[in-house]
Amino acid sequence: MAEGNNGFEPKIVGFLCNWCTASAADLAGTTRAQYPPNLHPVRVMCSGTVDPVYVIKALLSGADSVMIGGCHPGDCHYVSGNYKARRRIAMLKNIFESLGLDSDRIWIRWISASEGPEFAAAVREITEETKKAGPNPLSANWAL
Amino acid sequence: MEKRVGVYICHCGTNIAGYLDVEKVTRYAQSLPSVVIARDYTFMCSDPGQDMIKEDIRELKLNRVLVCSCSPTLHLRTFREACQAAGLNPHLCEMATIREYCSWVHSHDRQAATEKAMAMVAAGVRRVIYRDPLVTKYAPVNSNTLIVGGGIAGIQTALEVANSEHKVYLVEREPSIGGRMSQLGKTFPYLEPAIDILAPKMEQVADNEYIELLSYSEVTDLAGYIGNFKATINKKARCVDATKCDSCGICWEKCPVEVDNEFDRGLSKRKAIYRPFPEAVPNTPVIDREHCTRFLNGDCTICQEACPAKAIDYEQADEEVEIEAGAVIVATGYDTFDPTPIEQYGYGKYDNVITSPEFERMASANGPTDGNIVLKDGSTPKSVAIVHCVGSRDENYNQYCSRVCCMYSLKYASFLKETLDADVYQMYIDMRCFGKGHEEFYKQVSDAGVNFVRGKVAQITDIAINDEEKGKLIVVGEDTLLGTLIRIPVDMVILSVAMQPRADTDRIARVFLLGCSRDGFFLERHPKLDPVGTMLDGIFAVGCCQSPKDISDTVAQATGAAARAIELISKGRVEMEAATASVDTEICSGCGYCEAVCAYSAIEVDPKINLAVVNEALCKGCGACTVNCPSKALQLKNFGPKQLLDMIDEATKEYAGLAS
User: Fold this and answer.
1) Per the CB < 8 Å rule, is A41 touching B101?
2) Cβ of A35 and B105 within 8 Å?
3) Model-level pTM?
4) Which residues contact B540 (CB under 8 A, 6 or more apart)?
5) CA distance B94 to B80
6) Which is more confidently placed, B536 or A83?
7) For B627, how many CA atoms within 13 A lie in the half-sphere containing its CB?
8) Cβ neighbours of residue A107 under 8 Å, at least 6 residues apart?
9) Angle between the N-to-C axes of helices B405-420 and B438-447, in degrees from 0 to 180, rounded to the nearest 10
């Protein structure tokens, strides 16, 4: 998004569960935690509603990484949505690997509503790691 | 129908406009397809801001509204109500969070924040375009209230709610309710003994038929949502049968084990079977299983043999209880600052350097010294220094002001003057006496001949440099009004220690899904307009777990929280998620994958028509089924793939340079 002086600024799409990670992001804001502006937040009702199609779509459209933020295991607002997300993302990563694609660009994080600092730290980490990994080749090489 | 979107970009004073270029974002919004009007305004949530939206809906025939401001948890309802007032279905209004997710967290990079806001606005427009009008539905509210913490905040809230004849569960971790207030001597500024005004309230809790007191218990888990919470409570075994025990006291007289009494801040001893203090509610003693010989070695039965009521039951086990409640009030209180790390003040090194909570116990009629102030050797102090702001207003410990120390320090001075006619020195930074009757009390104490010395104390030492100082504690510091260094020899030093968040705040925050502000206290929903609410609907935080405050303020806030709980209960219903799942009957193959994945059994395949059918009363709108549906026949209303895919498109576009 913001092109810094020293090169690559990754685009990251974050699917944030309304009940935990999106609230943690609210809290990070309220407490004025500072983190890189690379993550574009998309509030979803549950991490279990994140269709792998959305993750693939983001990576094809030009995202360099995708973050999925859900409730801690055992704490899902909808009983078990985060478990579904966990398995779906694990499968997706598997498929990515078998196709020779970079599964490390898919991040899943459990961040509760009270963990504002953890949210900011996660964004920092994902941004840093994505910078190291470089631009996502998937979006550039893909012709639909 | 043609989509006519109105985009409203809020400055939030300078909270947004101070960190990103609102004008550029507005101009960009105006250039987006379907956007009829884009405006910016100082405060969109204000009446003029809302009127602007209403007028545009009517004049410009808007049929979609996007407000780009704070988190939807704060004002989505406000803006939806405004839309409804102008005749637009409230579900056609959407928010983009450019304050919490953008301006506040990228406040050092104006250009990047502006570009990110542009992306968020563009994505928001794409999201709102595909929204459909929905009918708002309601769920019933459980009429019970769960109150966590039995200090004055919890007691006050419990009584207020119970007086409306609604059931209250009051959960207290300690063996008795009463909290910190029960440990205090007198209260400022009118010098009423704390226990004298508290004990009747504690009794009222015990006697109130609408209050179920769960003492010696802790909430370990909270599930559910506003109106319908389920709490799991661990009820620790007292090992004393409360139905048989009449608190005669023989058990604790006979018990051979002595332990530091935490209620008296370690200034006295208690037994392994004990009642925390005479006015305790409930008054039944409890066996401290960590120290009781019976539980350590298994061979002592002295208390059981001595008990005339046969009330001692070593076999009693911890119990897990589940309760339901519509509202939850967290009133878990505070800890006091331990001054040991401030080595130069000599706490723990010098016998007669004590903390304010220790002084409170000494000054209490039911305390370890029967209300007498004594030095370690039993004699009476003739001179006392009170050091303010220990652990408060100190960059090394807590930046905040604990708000009560000035006043209780004045209370100590008044007490010492009156009972001992001692020389008292107030070592203060600023006197903050802002409450009702506080300034008058300051004047009164000041007139009584108490010495006020302005300046932070540098050191407390016993190294004398002249005869006058021999055998005394010497308070070393600077009098910043006189501009001189001072040494004041005294018999006793009281450290007025800070109020701090509870040591296990993190655990409590996790259970009740609360956020903490930078000082570590629980975060209120809005510092001015909703100091009682939290970010989660139906959960409130009151008293010193939210911020340091005195008893009057705590009681006022607790009464406010009770009103909020009663509001919820008496209304009897809460708005339910209207955005449930829906089935595209042309695509659905009736495979039943959705049925298997639904946590609420809200979807069933009707064999007669071979289609999935959503029970809207049960569906919570999580969307798990939409991902599992192989033919994508299931969609979440107002949050379908079209919206998400479009949003992703907007999010991954190139914005760099747009704001330069």
Assistant:
1) yes
2) yes
3) 0.80
4) B327, B328, B329, B330, B532, B533, B534, B561, B564, B565
5) 8
6) A83
7) 28
8) A65, A66, A67, A68, A122, A126
9) 40
With a cut of 90, say whether residue A38 has pLDDT above it: yes
- DSSP code at position A103: G
Say which residue the tokens 């005479």 belong to. Answer: B278
**Set of chain B residues whose Cβ sits within 8 Å of the Cβ of A44:** 623, 639, 644
- Cα-based distances in Å from B425 to B249, B408, B487: 42, 14, 12
The pLDDT mean for chain B works out to 95
Reduce the DSSP state of residue B311 to 3 states and report it. Answer: coil
Which token pair is A6?
A: 């020293």
- Please give the DSSP secondary-structure letter assigned to residue B498: P
Any A CB within 8 A of B596 CB: no
Return d(Cα B389, Cα B401) in angstroms, integer. 8
CA distance B628 to chain A (A): 8
- Per DSSP, the residues of B390-442 read ESSS-TTS--S--SSHHHHHHHHHHHHHHHH--EEEEEES-----STTHHHHH
CA angle B163, B166, B167 (to 5 degrees): 110
What is the C-alpha separation between A22 and B389, in angstroms, rounded? 37
- What is the Cα–Cα distance from B252 to B306, expressed in whole angstroms? 10
Report residue A7's pLDDT band, with 50, 70 and 90 as the boundaries: confident
Average pLDDT over residues B305-327: 96
CA A29 to each of CA B7, B102, B103, B346: distance values in angstroms, whole numbers, following the listed order? 22, 8, 8, 40
| Widest CA span in chain B | 103
| Nearest residue to A119 (alpha-carbon basis) of A62, A36, A47, A46 | A36
Query: ipTM of this predicted complex?
Result: 0.93
Q: Could you say which DSSP state residue B603 is in? A: E
- CA-to-CA distance for B106 and B18, rounded, in angstroms? 11
Non-local (6+) Cβ contacts of B412 within 8 A are B356, B359, B363, B384, B386, B424, B494
For the stretch B23-32, pLDDT in tens is: 999 999 999 9
A113 touches chain B (CB under 8 A): yes
Name the minimum distance, in Å, from the CA of A41 to any CA of chain B. Answer: 8
pLDDT in the model for residue B620:
85
Does residue B264 contact residue B366 with C-beta atoms inside 8 Å? no
Position B68 confidence tier, pLDDT thresholds 50, 70, 90: very high
Q: Kindly list the residues from chain B whose CB atom is less than 8 angstroms away from the CB atom of residue A37.
A: 102, 105-106, 109, 112-113, 115-116
Which pair of tokens denotes residue B520?
């570590």
Domains of chain B by start residue, with CATH: 5-134+643-659 (3.40.50), 137-230+322-334+506-574 (3.50.50.60), 237-317 (3.30.70), 335-500 (3.50.50.60), 581-637 (3.30.70.20)
Give the angle A115-A117-A122 at the CA atoms, nearest 5°: 95
Q: Is B112 on the interface with A (CB under 8 A)?
A: yes
Tens of pLDDT, residue by residue over B335-377, are 999 999 999 999 999 999 999 999 999 999 999 999 999 999 9
Q: Which of B54, B68, B170, B162 is nearest to B113 (CA)?
A: B68
A140 Cβ under 8 Å from any chain B Cβ: no
For residues B540 and B534, the answer to whether their CB atoms sit within 8 Å is yes
